[in-house]
Specification:
Layout lengths: L1 H18 L4 H13 L4 H14 L4 H24 L4 H4 L18 H16 L4 H17 L5 H18 L5
Length: 173
Amino acid sequence: MKLLYSIHKYDVFMFSWLINAGIHSTLTQISRYVSKTGDGQLYLLIIGLLYGSEGIKSSLLQAVVLAFLIERPSYFLLKNGFKRNRPEAMLKNFHSIITPSDQFSFPSGHTSAAFMMATLLSYFFPSFIIIFYCWATLVACSRIILGVHFPTDTLVGMLLGIGTALFSLGQII
């Protein structure tokens, strides 16, 4: 229990520091837009484009579909198993910038999906790896800046996303 408490204290400290940073107001507007890129519509567009251009035999399309079939239920089970409240529910006098789609924060689904897609796309388009991972990192940071996740929520989301992508690519068993 001491370890969990120590992690929680670190999480609250890092969250508070990020939220109170001097450039927060500038980042808030940008974070709203970046966070929206992780809402799901972009993934549906990618799936549609892959299906339209290559059909069901597309290796990338198959990997994306398999990854989402694993990642979404895993994310749902973890989120509803841990039932960690969001920062607004845990911290006095704090209000998040946006209204989250659900009650719990651990792990971050936006971060998980973003890192999963970044990993899958990087595997098939390695010359864009820096762009894909920078985008996924920005999605994760935006969720903290908007006040709906603690840093460890996004860290575990990242691990879930990358792990799911690698599994779907047959890289790990």
